[in-house]
């Protein structure tokens, strides 16, 4: 409830100014009986105030997640499954205050149509896994509800092989790391090895190449905890280059140098193994070269034209 006093102005003008809304919206609230002047409901927007207290009960508006046909590169598509090469800077699904420019907006535009019910943060049609906003690479989604559970089951039952590439500050220990991850006890926006309500987390690491104190690392997460690779690499003393949350900013790249390079998954309807590969994007390729790194022959770069 918002309360204020005005004198000598129209009721709709006063409501619009007091609540920073349009005159049309203020008129709609008045005509819906949501505005009281003194001890009575006034339904006439043109009513001229005489210094009475005005009480407004505004309509709480839930933002909608609208369809948007975004230019996201497609790696593979059939009648059931879509594999995208998600660019950095793009959210997988809506978050508080961000309801456009996400992968979900694309799915709504192409396959699902508008979703009007429920909190917008929970509008996630087709989504079975996610990548952090500034992590690029392979993202697999369901094109319709009939295969959504099959894809989700493959992730739950660990039938999916995921391979990431990261540039790290420091050389992490190779092999399998088992270190539970939970919420950081003080900085709640961060995750932490051994944090609050920690859950089993397992990642396999291999160093593919080094450049002085830096390393090009392959990471294979065997579980799917929030920020898992980033947290495990920090724990190993080799945070990801440019990761401001778990490391530090870098002049070589404007995000964490982490890329979902390859993903293999059984098709939810046929069982056939699908394999997707997203070449390393230009910003990571340029960062690795700037550090003096050389690329292993088997690593494919996207449009890369630098020296070998």
TrEMBL record:
<protein>
    <recommendedName>
        <fullName>Pseudouridine synthase</fullName>
        <ecNumber>5.4.99.-</ecNumber>
    </recommendedName>
</protein>
<comment type="function">
    <text>Responsible for synthesis of pseudouridine from uracil.</text>
</comment>
<dbReference type="InterPro" id="IPR002942">
    <property type="entry name" value="S4_RNA-bd"/>
</dbReference>
<feature type="active site">
    <location>
        <position position="132"/>
    </location>
</feature>
<dbReference type="InterPro" id="IPR006145">
    <property type="entry name" value="PsdUridine_synth_RsuA/RluA"/>
</dbReference>
<dbReference type="InterPro" id="IPR020103">
    <property type="entry name" value="PsdUridine_synth_cat_dom_sf"/>
</dbReference>
<dbReference type="InterPro" id="IPR036986">
    <property type="entry name" value="S4_RNA-bd_sf"/>
</dbReference>
<comment type="similarity">
    <text>Belongs to the pseudouridine synthase RluA family.</text>
</comment>
<dbReference type="InterPro" id="IPR006225">
    <property type="entry name" value="PsdUridine_synth_RluC/D"/>
</dbReference>
<dbReference type="Pfam" id="PF01479">
    <property type="entry name" value="S4"/>
</dbReference>
<dbReference type="GO" id="GO:0003723">
    <property type="term" value="F:RNA binding"/>
</dbReference>
<dbReference type="InterPro" id="IPR006224">
    <property type="entry name" value="PsdUridine_synth_RluA-like_CS"/>
</dbReference>
<keyword id="KW-0413">Isomerase</keyword>
<dbReference type="GO" id="GO:0000455">
    <property type="term" value="P:enzyme-directed rRNA pseudouridine synthesis"/>
</dbReference>
<dbReference type="InterPro" id="IPR050188">
    <property type="entry name" value="RluA_PseudoU_synthase"/>
</dbReference>
<dbReference type="GO" id="GO:0120159">
    <property type="term" value="F:rRNA pseudouridine synthase activity"/>
</dbReference>
<feature type="domain" description="RNA-binding S4">
    <location>
        <begin position="9"/>
        <end position="71"/>
    </location>
</feature>
<keyword id="KW-0694">RNA-binding</keyword>
<dbReference type="Pfam" id="PF00849">
    <property type="entry name" value="PseudoU_synth_2"/>
</dbReference>
């Amino acid at each position: 409830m918002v309360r204020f006093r005005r004198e000598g102005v129209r009721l709709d003008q006063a409501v619009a100014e007091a609540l920073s809304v349009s005159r049309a919206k203020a008129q709609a609230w008045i005509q819906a009986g949501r505005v009281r002047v003194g001890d009575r409901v006034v339904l006439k927007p043109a009513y001229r105030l005489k210094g009475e207290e005005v009480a407004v009960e505004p309509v709480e508006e839930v933002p909608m997640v609208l369809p948007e046909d975004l230019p996201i590169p497609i790696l593979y598509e059939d009648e059931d499954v879509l594999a995208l090469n998600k660019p950095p800077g793009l959210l997988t699904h809506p978050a508080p205050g961000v309801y456009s420019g996400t992968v979900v907006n694309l799915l709504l535009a192409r396959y699902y149509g508008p979703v009007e019910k429920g909190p917008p943060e929970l509008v996630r049609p087709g989504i079975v896994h996610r990548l952090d906003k500034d992590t690029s690479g392979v993202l697999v989604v369901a094109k319709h509800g009939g295969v959504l559970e099959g894809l989700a089951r493959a992730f739950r039952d660990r039938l999916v092989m995921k391979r990431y590439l990261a540039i790290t500050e420091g050389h992490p220990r190779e092999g399998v790391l088992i270190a539970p991850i939970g919420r950081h006890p003080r900085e709640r926006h961060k995750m932490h090895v051994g944090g609050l309500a920690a859950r089993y987390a397992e990642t396999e690491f291999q160093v593919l190449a080094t450049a002085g104190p830096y390393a090009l690392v392959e990471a294979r997460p065997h579980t799917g905890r929030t920020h898992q690779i980033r947290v495990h690499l920090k724990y190993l003393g080799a945070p990801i280059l440019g990761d401001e949350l778990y490391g530090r900013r870098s002049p070589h790249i404007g995000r964490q140098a982490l890329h979902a390079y390859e993903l293999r998954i059984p098709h939810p309807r046929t069982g056939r193994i699908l394999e997707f590969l997203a070449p390393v994007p230009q910003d990571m390729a340029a960062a690795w070269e700037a550090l003096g790194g050389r690329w292993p022959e088997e690593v494919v770069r996207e449009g890369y034209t630098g020296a070998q």
